[in-house]
Task: structure prediction
Amino acid sequence: MTEEIKASARRHLAADGANLSLRAVSRDLGMVSSAIYRYFASRDELLTALIIDAYNSIGEAAEAADATEAADATVAADATVAADATVDATVAVAVAVAVADRGDPVRRWLAVAHGVRTWALAHTPEYALIYGSPVPGYAAPADTIGPASRASLVMCRILADAQTGGLLRDDSQAPLPAALRSELKRVAELVPASVSEPTIARALIAWTQLFGTLSFELFGQFNNIIDTREAWFDHQARIMAAFIGLRSAHL
Amino acid sequence: MTEEIKASARRHLAADGANLSLRAVSRDLGMVSSAIYRYFASRDELLTALIIDAYNSIGEAAEAADATEAADATVAADATVAADATVDATVAVAVAVAVADRGDPVRRWLAVAHGVRTWALAHTPEYALIYGSPVPGYAAPADTIGPASRASLVMCRILADAQTGGLLRDDSQAPLPAALRSELKRVAELVPASVSEPTIARALIAWTQLFGTLSFELFGQFNNIIDTREAWFDHQARIMAAFIGLRSAHL
DNA sequence: TGTACATCAGTGAACGCGCGTTCACTGATGTAC
DNA sequence: TGTACATCAGTGAACGCGCGTTCACTGATGTAC
Result:
């Protein structure tokens, strides 16, 4: 029932934006408005549930896109190893494991970027709820913090795997100003491998760029500017892969 | 009076977001709600006026930031020319004009980026109105298109001046997919100089990155991640200047 | 097998509020002769 | 200098609507003995 309420609320989000109406939801479900209060203590609590769900949903989308790409990589690696029968057995296993574990960083980044975009296109009201203007008079409670970082942790893993696989161009040109170093060191701790702060900074720039493009596309800033949205998005994601310093495995 | 209504409406935008109430505005002004209708035919018309004002306001902020930097550059160029008395007179004039006309592309870009951010921090509700989630049930009329592009035209001028001044690294590595070429050619026509499509693409990426960062900062996505906002913004804008290919004049 | 009781999902009326928009109006100010 | 008229900013009441939240309640279902 809780799920049914949230599903209806999500539908209304599309029409009403963040000023979601409990009465509209209850009408939708053929109930009386006060019945909602058996499941949610207030409108804000329902909103919080929707926000957490949205963060988890986009996080899952990112994880799934990454996992699919990793699975493809495993298959490809297996195929490569099987085809090349002359390879020493232990080396073959090592290659298979390495590629299976991390796949191609560039392809993983592209898969995640496209996965996030696909999710955003299919769930625009929810995207707007979490990445658009804040809901007036609503303050997100602490429970939203965890789910909020889920998608970006996928990015962190790609960075880490690229680094340990030697597929991250990690030059320290353009050193960071002192004021930022400690801050970015803290961010770097979310990456399960040792990546230099300047590279962390570039990844963060690419991440904000990704959401900047999505917001522009979904909120209408590309109208009359960019029509071939998918092609543009793909091109731009590829350029940002190079910007971050991700290198392809297969060559 | 129209201005007073808009001023009050802007104040209410902060508290209520896009679901602005005519009655709240009229109360604010000590009028009866129906009095508003002498000045705006409907709530949507008031919203449209606010949106157009906001676009013009951020556009002016960008123009002013660029102009200030250009003025500084003029002063600097005059000083340079005055100091170096051995310079041939015609060359001196040419340099002065060139630098006065276009200044330093990197500094102009930084000035505009910071100018846009300063505006956004001072006018967060208006920023949210134009770059945040679309207002439910509201469709922006065609009159908003012109003002909407004002800020980005400043960017176009910087690009053009950098190009004609030989301060734009315009390598055509990473050729564009065919599907995008014609589209970006159309965008390139907004730049009053001949700039290659791949560079236009990079500038567009940097532009979306700029707004991506602002939205993240203003809408709370940087909470618990980045605290030294100004330093981070500056660092990231400098990196993006290099990414676009802007080069400094003074060296 | 039958009775008594507790649980619990949902009802319906009401509270006090706010909203956009309409319409006929008042009363001050300016204009024409 | 004085009168008649038009303009126009703002009023006040009303329409019909929607909202979040509360509260005492009904009536079905499940549980215990």
About this structure: Residues 43-83 of chain B form the longest helix (41 residues).
